[in-house]
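Q: Could you write out the predicted structure for this multi-component system? I'm mainly interested in how the pieces pack against one another.
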Amino acid sequence: MKRPSTFLYTVLSFGFAFLYVPIFVVMVYSFNDSRLATVWGGFSTRWYTALLKNQQILDAALLSLEIAVVSATLATLLGTLAGLALNRMGRYRGRTVFTGMIAAPLVMPEVITGLSLLLLFVSLKELIGWPDSRGANTITIAHITFSMAYVAVIVQSRLAAMDQSLEEAAMDLGGRPFAVARDITLPLIAPAMIAGWLLAFTLSLDDLVIASFTSGAGASTLPMVIFSKVKLGITPEVNALATIIIAIVTVGVLIAGWIVLRQRQHGSNRPEAGAPGD
Amino acid sequence: MNTGSGDRTGVAGGACSGTPWRDPKQQPFIEVRSLTKRFGDFTAVNNIDLHIYRGELFTILGGSGCGKSTLLRMLAGFEEPSEGRILIDGLDITDMPPYERPVNMMFQSYAVFPHMTVEQNIAYGLKKEKLPRDTVRQRVKEMLELVQLPELARRKPQQLSGGQQQRVALARALIKRPKVLLLDEPLAALDKKLREQTQFELMNLQDQLGITFVVVTHDQEEAMTLATRIAVMRAGSFVQIGTPSEVYEFPRNLYVADFFGSINIFDATVISWENQDITVELDGTGTRIQTRHPKTLASGSRCQVGIRPEKVLISKKPPEGAGQTVTRGVVQDLAYYGNRSIYRVRSEAGRVIQVSAQNYQRSAELLLEWDDEVFLSWDSSCSVVMTE
């Protein structure tokens, strides 16, 4: 094989530098002893200690985690059902439309999603008196609606790759529909569900725009607190917080990626089916 | 149709003794009554009647889209018939869900559960029957030995070859001791060597267990070697049902004749038919052939006469003996296969006749060459008269 040219190496280095230097800078400055965020004053972990004593940030972090866990779990449940429905209802009129519609929230600008959800909550309150105030509940609902789409897409692609005669075989061997779902379908789509959950969790933890639209007084998620703090100037405390978040997100993405990769390897090991029947 | 045909049941399916389908007093084991399946406007299976007897290895053969898989899926319970009934051993199973039927299936893709070990796969059906753990363990062990996989019990399916996966699928279906085992293209995914081996193993297993097998395939060779009887299916209906030698030697029509191996076809006119003795005249040459045909045909009606390439003798000298159909021709093409040679001979009437000849003499040179003048002859009774 020919050795890649110096040019390719240069392009590659610049590309990765462009992506990761800013993040790296934040991580380095989180260990900065100086109060001025842009002047290096020696190594220290004091901003991490300060962070742990900042009740506002801790509350926000807890709220974010709560919302992320609840919305990811519910989104996985609903998204899996949606994926199953799309995959199993056979060929009906408008199937393509529905498949497209479930993917639409993936590309919808967040500002629009946030705005439309805000309008929905406001008009719901006028119509049925619920939700009486916006806060953690409305943010959770908002997060479910968009992360559900991601789960549905992941689960659906897993189901599409799955040999449907597996379920028929289980039924043929005496499995009733519920047993088949528990013994065969669920274990086989579990990796997709876990990947979906992790993605939904990460998306919820990251989200600023939609949360800002759908939140009310008193409920501030972590990204909202950071954003408002940064408006007053970058503090080393925020750098420390950012580093922790980067670490959590990285771990989440790595696990999700590993699961998806493993699942793909399983898929490629399946025996080649022979000539298709009729 | 049965006249003089050899009976292969003694070779192929030991579990099925004799020829129950010729005995009107025999009760069919599987009885399909006017079964129809429609998908929207499309009729996949069209008003089929079928009797399969206990211990048979029955093959349903047809091209893709002929409805054979739909028929099999209705037997398994995955498709609901639009009309008609299915009975197994006297029990009407038409409205039974798949998990209650005394029928098991081996899928074309094998459908081995990827997240379970070989052992767990095989045990699955028995666990669903809620049998005691010891019984399950004992029967799984027996089954593993039967399909010669005991050392692979704890492997996952990804670690198995295609042939091994097939054995797992087979063991998993057989362990339920079904009354009928359905096999969907059982040999399609295997390579040639393994196919032949598996073919004999399937036949032996069937012989040992005495379970009635229903096989669906598109491969005529697979059907010929496995089956006690073959049902040739086309566009949702059966064209012919018979033993392998019946469908090969006495094809009911051109479709069946052409499906099994090659055949030379001549257009002809019926001269006379009396008590199954028929005389026909070939177009062009005016050659008259006397053979047998079970159905009444009016004098002057059109028909086709077929002759299998291996039934035709090729020689440089004119053949002797009566009752032969003889024609002259020139060797246009030949292919040497070692054990046999295929000749394409252009006859005097200008048609090309294919001949398959055993090379029973040992010779480094070809006994017949291109452009040799030859005589073709065959026993007239080997000719098949077809009307469709």
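A: Regarding packing and overall arrangement: The mean pLDDT of chain A is 86.
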